[in-house]
Amino acid sequence: MERHPHMRVTDPVIASLVEREEARQFYTAKLIPSENYASTAVLEASATVLTNKYSEGYARKRYYEGQQFIDAIEELAIDRAKALFGADHANVQPYSGSPANLAAYTALIAKKSDNQRILGMGLPHGGHLTHGWKVSVTSRFFSAEQYAVDEQTHLIDFDDVRAKALAFRPAVIVCGASAYPRIIDFARFAEIAAEVGARLVADMAHIAGLVAGGAHPSPVPYADVVTSTSHKTLRGPRGGLILCKAEHARAVDRAVFPGLQGGPHNHTVAALAVALQEADTDDFKRYAHALVANAKAMAEQLLSQGVRLVSGGTDNHLILFDAASLGATGKEAAVAMDKAGLEANANSIPFDPRGPFDPSGVRIGSPALTARGLGPADMVQIANWIVAAVRAREDDTALAGICADVREMMTAYPPPGFEKPWPDPALLDTDRALLDT
Ligand code: DSN
Hints:
- This protein folds into 2 domains: 19-34 and 285-436, Aspartate Aminotransferase, domain 1; 53-279, Aspartate Aminotransferase, domain 2 (3-Layer(aba) Sandwich).
- The chain contains 15 helices and 15 strands.
- The chain has helices at 5-10, 12-27, 40-46, 68-85, 97-108, 158-168, 186-196, 208-212, 249-260, 266-279, 282-304, 330-339, 367-371, 376-391, 396-412; strands spanning 29-30, 57-58, 61-62, 89-91, 117-121, 143-147, 172-175, 199-203, 225-229, 240-244, 308-309, 318-322, 342-343, 345-347, 361-365.
- A 7-stranded mixed beta sheet has the order 4-10-9-8-7-5-6, sandwiched between helices. A 4-stranded antiparallel beta sheet has the order 11-12-15-14. A two-stranded parallel sheet has the order 1-13.
- The longest helix has 23 residues, at 282-304.
- The model has no long low-confidence stretch (mean pLDDT 96).
- The structure holds D-serine.
- D-serine binds at residues 34, 97, 128, 178.
């Protein structure tokens, strides 16, 4: 059966690029911890005529007619989000995690005359751009201060968080991370927020699937507002959501629409509803615990090979390793790994002596490989390949050899969202110029 039969006719160049990306995702070991494989059902919901509909507003209070089915879909997504995470209120319209964070801050810092200060985790210490990092609008629209991890342990330095909270008196403290391999103590953040009279925003984008599956403590009981993406460990479509306490419901809804966004992406909301139902199952709980076990297996094997890990290991889905312990920079290591079919990203490590484009670290994780069904023994093999690839970074023949082995392993574990016939691996080796012929 031919893939994408209509697109092949109307736009063969895009169809061909999509097919090649399908092949790349199928045959590559996806180690980027913020990526995953959505199920076929989630992909089906994403690719529906719901994309044709405008729905500014909320269910039964819309600015356009024809909403009877859209309302039902959005209400289902909201109900499922509230039930899965035990939240008072859910908004499923944010386009992704960054707008969700901006909406959370504007909801809690409503007026120009209010205290406009936010305190978040510094990007090089594992935080996100939108937690107040200097190049983000979150540090221009608001006044931002950043906390750090401890230089020795690489754990969040709560003395630093508290001292900065007392000195800076933020309106909002942001917790949550994009590159932090340990459990986040949301209760401790809530204590500090209460002490200084700040609101607490928890960005659980990276760990939403772990929280849903009971593999990481939930921020919902502690935070005023919880933000998330839906496409990382939660395995949904590319989008965002916000959960909050009842007292903030109206402010959050108004911050999303009309504050920051126009019409919601209804196809994404439907796909999110599908993903939330999938996440409310015993299968998903097993997945969440398995991905942590897999990350630990990979971490232990890396440690046994002399690789230095930020914080010495992992409690969650991700690992940050210092490529200098393999004699490479982060970028050199990530590029070599990519040639070997091991997809990762170079990443700053705490107190990194190098700059952000070629930092010292590489960030890897287990969510996508666990979704394919790989287990701890496979993760040991993957760790060995990572070390071999970084060591052989100048040797394209050796990297190609590892890549062939990776492809063989990936073929044995077809990812969710792919249907037979499997992509043709030759698509990965064809020249780009052939696309135009
Ligand atoms: N870009 C995401 C990540 O890779 O962690 C954060 O939003």
